[in-house]
Amino acid sequence: MLIPALDVDAPVLPVRAPDGTLVPPSDPSRLGWWADGARPGDAEGSVLVTGHTVHTGGGALDDLETLRRGDTVVVGTKAGRFRYVVRSMHVYSKGRVADDATRLFSQDVPGRLVLITCEDWDGERYLSNVVVVATPRD
User: Are 114 and 132 in contact (CB under 8 A)?
Assistant: First the structure.
């Protein structure tokens, strides 16, 4: 995955959501794509990609909250390269993400890319999640 505005070029690996919790790859320089959801380029559904944030640096999505409307994200697959444009960026409390998960990660929407990572390190844990929604670039 390429995110030029963040200078990110990170591999994306398929991941699962055992017990309803999406588990990103343990290596923070890698991203995880929810293999049970939409695939990049699909006309319907959310392509859900997650990664770790590292409060000391080194996570591929450390600066996800700095993406702005209009920034580009490119996902490369065996089927080709798919370009998306950022439409929104929101920071949600952990509880709010869980409450809105059905809407945020819906598979019953026109094709889109949803990026998610942790945010707001308090010295012991992350208090929030950053959620970026991007749609296919025409």
Answer: yes
